[in-house]
Amino acid sequence: MMDKANDLVARGADRHRSGRLAEAESLYRRALRLDANHPDALNLLGLAMRSRGALAEGLALSARAMALAPDKPLILANYGAGLAEAGQLDQAIAVLQAALARAPADAVTWRNLGQALAAKGEARAALEPLLTAARLTPDIPDVWLALAHVHADCGDPVGARAAATAALTCAGRDRAAVEQARFMLAALGEGAAPPRAPAGYVRKLFDQFAPRFDAELEGRLHYRTPALLAEAIGAVLPANAALSVLDMGCGTGLSGLALQPFARRLEGVDLSPRMLDAARARGIYAALHEADLLAFLPTRRAGYDLIAAADVLNYLGDLTPVLAAMRAALRPNGVAAFSLETGEIAPFELAEGMRYRHAPAHARALAEAAGFTVLSETPVILREERGQPVGGMLLILR
Fold first, then answer.
1. Which of 156-160, 218-222, 394-398 has the lowest mean pLDDT?
2. Which range marks the domain in which residue 230 is found?
3. Alpha carbon distance 187, 161 (integer Å)
4. 60: Cβ–Cβ under 8 A, 6 or more apart, which residues?
5. What is the pLDDT of residue 353?
6. Which domain-ending residue is among 127, 159, 192?
7. 385 pairs with which residues across the strands?
8. Going by C-beta distance under 8 Å and a sequence separation of 6 or more, which residues neighbour residue 203?
9. Is residue 105 a part of any domain in this protein?
C-alpha cells in the first residue's frame, strides 16, 4: 500500500510541475486515502491548494506534513512560505531559517526569508538572504527585483538601481519582469515614468500585502484616508443619501466601511483577488469585481451616484483616462471622490516609493477638462512612511 501511495504522489508531482493542478490534487488525495499520514502527499497537496488561492486549507495541510516530518527541508520550506503568505511573519522566519539550516543551497527559501524579513520591516536583515539567493540563481529576475526593493527601503538608491538593472538584464522575454524592472528604474530616476504602474506589479503587491494590510496601515502607518475621504464626502452629501456607490480599489474593505453610510448599494472593484477575499469577509458589499479599474468602469456607464477611491489613483500617473471613465460611469449629478499624493512637479512624478505624486493645480485642471465641477479640495496627511508624513489632497467632484 505504501508503494502505491508513493507512486500516486510521484505521478501527482509530475502533473503539478506541468501546471495540471486539478489532476495533481486528485492524485495526492488518492494517496492520502491509502495513507492519511503521508507527509509528502500532505505537503504537496497543501502547496497545490495554496497555488489556487485556498491559503488556509493549504497551510493546515502543510502544518500536518511538518508535524510528521519536522526535519525534512522541503516540507519546512513550503510551510515557511505558506506562513509568510498568510502574514504570520515571525513564525515564517523561524521555519524558513530551520529549512535553510538543513538545505543551505535552497535559493527559493533564501528569497522567501529575505522577503519575509522585508515585509516585517527589517530591510537591512533582508539584504543578506536576498544577496545569497541572487548568487545562487543570478538569472531569476524576481530575486533581483526583491533585492532592489530592499535596497530602496534601506535608503540605498545606487544598490536599488544596480539590482533593478540586473533584473532587466536577465528578464529576457518575461514581459511582467521587464515592466516591473523598468518601472522601478523610472522611480529611481532612470528613464521616463510610464503613464501608470504595471497592473501585474500592483496585483502582486497587494496580494502579498493582504493578510497584514489592515493592521499595518492602521497601526504602523497611521492610515486615515478612508475616514478623511468620508468626512469630505459628508460635507457635500447627506449621510443617509442612499446612493449606488462604487468603492474603486476597495482593497480589504476599510474604505467600504467608511462609505457604507452613504450607500443603498455598495460595490467594490480591485485587481487583487486576496484583497477581495478579505473585503468579501466583511459582508458589506452587494457585489465585488476582480478587474482593472480602467477596464471595469466603461462597462458601468451611468451606473453609480458616487465613485470613491482612497489611495488608488497613486498608481496612475496620467489621470486623463480614469477621470473620463469615472465621469461616464456616474449618473447625472453624480459625485467622484478620491485622494492623491501631492508633489510640486507637473503633471506628475513617480517617487521612489513607486507611487505617483500629482501637482494639485494640474489635477484640478484635468478634472474640469473632463467635465467635472470641483466641489472641494482639501490638503491632508494621508499616512506615514518611514516615520515621515505623506502629504496629499482630497478632491470631491460633481
1. 218-222
2. 210-397
3. 10
4. 46
5. 84
6. 192
7. 388
8. 271, 272
9. no
Residue 345 gets which letter from DSSP? S
pLDDT in tens, 327-370: 999 999 999 999 999 988 888 999 888 999 999 999 999 999 99
pLDDT at 346: 80
| Mean of all residue pLDDT scores within the chain | 92
Please report the beta strands in the chain, taking only residues with DSSP state E, as ranges in sequence order: 243-248, 263-270, 287-290, 304-309, 330-341, 348-350, 356-358, 374-385, 388-397
Q: Which of 128, 161, 192 is the last residue of a domain?
A: 192
Distance between CA 178 and CA 142 in Å, rounded?
Answer: 10
Residue 226: how many other CB atoms lie within 10 Å: 23
pLDDT digits (tens, 9 = 90+) for 277-293: 999 999 999 999 999 99
**What DSSP string describes 212-262?**
GHHHIIIIIT---HHHHHHHHHHTTS-TT--EEEEEET-TTTHHHHHHGGG
Tell me how far apart the alpha carbons of residues 270 and 311 are, in angstroms, rounded to a whole number: 12
Please report, for the domain that includes residue 313, its CATH number.
Answer: 3.40.50.150
| Whether residue 188 sits in one domain with residue 314 | no
- Name which residue leads in pLDDT, 221 or 329: 329
Residues 385 and 236 in one domain: yes
Phi first, then psi: what are they for 240, rounded to 5°?
-100, 35
